Amino acid sequence: METHPTECLLDCRQEVGPDAARKFLGHTQWLVNYWLLQHAYSIGIGDTIADASTMETRNRARDDAGNSAQKSLYESNNLKAMVTAGSKGSFINISHMTACVGQQNVEGKRILYGFIDRTLPHFTKDDYEPESNGFVENSYLCGLTPQQFVLHAMGGREGLINTAVETSETGYIQRQLVKAMEDIMCKYDGTVRNSLGDVIPFLYGEDGMDAVDFRRPSDMHPMEIVEAIDKLQERLKGLHWHWHIH
Question: How far apart are CA 57 and CA 69, in angstroms?
Answer without folding.
Answer: 8
